[in-house]
Write a structure and sequence with these properties.
single chain
């Protein structure tokens, strides 16, 4: 595979792999002893979380303006609202706990949870639409990838990146998105097929 042809696979596979690796070290609870790492961890992955919303659009690009705009909008909603969760419950709560303001963490956790739920649901919808359309246009080769991204996005909604379930969800997303790209690429190479996914 040419280096340029590998770009889409890295684009959809690398962010969830990074989040899975970070999730293995994510503290299960915010305490005085974990507060500094909790805060710094969320600062470190602040720019990684939004990248998850790019994968559904990349899978569906070239399959019609309506679908592209729909999953693009859902991806944007995910990125905006889930970033709010990361900032509030991650960076903010960690900073407050570190400064001995533990009582205030309940407020930012609650706000972050509510906003993050909007983003997580948007990602589940985007992943489901991308999976269904991929199966409809590519056929059975797309089924494993579609199942993985839907289950992975649901696990992300439920457990974020916490080990082990959240980490497993990120691994499902990484493998699923790459599998959908491979299925689409194989379909474009089949005799008489029309291209649906282009290499970046």
């Amino acid at each position: 595979m040419r280096p340029r042809a590998a770009v889409p696979y890295l684009t959809v596979g690398l962010p969830p792999l990074v989040l899975a690796a970070v999730g293995v070290t994510h503290p299960m609870h915010l305490t005085a002893s974990t507060a500094e790492y909790w805060r710094n961890l969320h600062i470190g992955i602040l720019a990684v979380f939004p990248l998850l919303g790019f994968a559904p659009w990349l899978i569906l690009r070239g399959r019609g303006a309506v679908l592209s705009w729909l999953v693009g909008t859902l991806g944007f909603l995910y990125a905006a609202f889930y970033t709010a969760l990361d900032v509030l419950a991650g960076i903010g709560a960690g900073g407050l706990r570190l400064d001995d303001m533990g009582r205030a963490t309940g407020t930012v956790f609650g706000l972050g949870r509510d906003l993050g739920l909007v983003g997580s649901v948007a990602l589940v919808l985007a992943a489901t639409i991308a999976g269904v359309v991929a199966i409809a246009s590519t056929g059975r080769p797309a089924i494993p990838g579609a199942l993985l991204v839907v289950v992975g996005s649901v696990l992300f909604l439920r457990d974020h990146i916490y080990f082990p379930v959240g980490v497993l969800g990120q691994l499902f997303l990484a493998v699923g998105w790459v599998a959908l790209l491979l299925a689409a690429r194989s379909a474009t190479r089949a005799p008489g097929s029309t291209p649906v996914v282009q290499d970046a």
